Amino acid sequence: YCDPLMASAGHKITARQRWTPTPVQLQILERIFDQGTGTPSKQNIKEITSELIQHGQISETNVYNWFQNRRARSKRKQLGSSSNNAESEQETEVESPNEKKNLLSQQNHAPSAEDLCFQNLEISPELHFLSVMSNPNAYDGDEHLSGKMGMPGNYNIYDQAED
Amino acid sequence: YCDPLMASAGHKITARQRWTPTPVQLQILERIFDQGTGTPSKQNIKEITSELIQHGQISETNVYNWFQNRRARSKRKQLGSSSNNAESEQETEVESPNEKKNLLSQQNHAPSAEDLCFQNLEISPELHFLSVMSNPNAYDGDEHLSGKMGMPGNYNIYDQAED
DNA sequence: TATGTATGAATGAATG
DNA sequence: CATTCATTCATACATA
Q1: pLDDT over 70 (residue B125)
Q2: Position B25 confidence tier, pLDDT thresholds 50, 70, 90
Q3: In this structure, are residues B32 and A133 in contact, taking their beta carbons and an 8 Å threshold?
Q4: If you write DSSP's letter for every residue of B3-64 in order, what string do you get?
Q5: pLDDT at residue B41, rounded to an integer
Q6: B115 three-state secondary structure
Q7: DSSP label at A103?
Q8: Which window residues (7-36, chain B) lie with Cβ within 7 Å of strand C?
Q9: Nearest to residue A144, comparing CAs of B98, B59, B143?
Q10: What pLDDT was estimated at residue B78?
Q11: Mean pLDDT along residues B57-62
Q12: Which nucleotide is nearest to B58 (CA to C1')?
């Protein structure tokens, strides 16, 4: 049969980056989702995949992702379309009519480049520890980090300096 | 105080609540992970953090989480060998036209900050052991950011088996 | 053709 | 340590 990937408007013959669920697959997936099987086990995933694969190319990864996305989407929609939440829920300038503000996203880096680039002369203080680190001593204690994994406390990177 | 994360351009960009490792940080982390150190101890975490913090905002928690995620992910792809093995007629699914392009390109101002750091990394004598991968193409451990989404059909779990 | 929207996919963080 | 959730990005896809 025709490649399910390029079955629609496709003109992409070189790259199948994103799995595109066929209507049939979508129908099945939605039905299963509707069953209440929110987070299917791996076994279920396999079974579902086995079913869907007959209707087009698909992998367990796709199925898994689909369910994850589906659930997340539903949830987000719920609390986003509600009347109004006077709770402590602060939305980061979220759902604007556009919503897709990621067009100019700057998620990563953007540190004090001019700064950290210059202090480069001292960038290898004790990194050699991993060269000789043969200490099988895992975690002497039980604490994973400095106290709890919530946050060290000293440097809170996620500082909602919103105001 | 000023958040190091958004202290760059000085715009009103919303601070990312999620830590995004800079290419440099990623390289270092990869190297350490590749050393076979596996799960670093608390002290190691601190050491690593001390090193990485010079290359951008980061906390011990981030480092810890990173290793945890990395470990889990590696394992996932490892245990993908049972009743699968359908066909692997996929071309080199690894090397994509572009690797971590998202890490280096999404804005238009291009501060070249990380770029400089990258260069500095190479020239660092002490960090030579972890600077061996100056060539992005020769990146040995970029399996996590490869672009082999999911069009396999023969893989098992929701993990992108990479081989 | 370019822009916008929808959704799959990647990853960091949280939880058990 | 294993699994799941939440957030964000990139790309498929629809429309102007």
Answers
A1: no
A2: very high
A3: no
A4: -TTSTTT---PPPPSS----HHHHHHHHHHIIIII-S--HHHHHHHHHHHGGGS---HHHHH
A5: 87
A6: helix
A7: G
A8: 18-21, 26
A9: B59
A10: 66
A11: 93
A12: C12
For chain B, the residue count is 163
Question: Positive or negative, the Cα torsion across A65, A102, B97, B145?
Answer: negative
Mean pLDDT of all residues in B87-112: 39
- For residues A83 and A56, the answer to whether their CB atoms sit within 8 Å is no
List, for residues A100-109, the tens digit of each pLDDT value. 333 333 333 3
- Quick count: other Cβ atoms within 10 Å of Cβ B99? 17
Contact yes or no for B155/A61 (Cβ under 8 A): yes
Q: Which amino acid is at A60?
A: E
**Is-contact A55 A24, C-beta < 8 A?**
yes
Whole-angstrom distance, CA of residue A75 vs CA of residue A77 = 5
pLDDT tens readout for residues B62-75: 999 999 999 998 88
> What residues approach strand D to within 7 A at the CB?
A 5-6, 8-10, 12, 15, 17-18, 20, 38-39, 41-42, 68-69, 71-72, 75-76, 92, 100, 102, 105-107, 138; B 14, 16-18, 38-39, 68-69, 71-72, 75-76, 98, 101-102, 105-106
Q: How many CA within 13 A on the CB side of residue B57? A: 25
Lookup result for tokens 């059909």:
B153
Q: Is the pLDDT of residue A142 over 80?
A: no
Lookup: tokens for B4: 């190091």
**Confidence category of residue A66, pLDDT binned at 50, 70, 90:** very high
The answer to whether B80 and B155 have CB atoms below 8 angstroms apart is yes
Q: Where are the alpha helices (DSSP H) in A82-125?
A: 113-116
Distance of CA B129 to the CA centre of its chain: 17
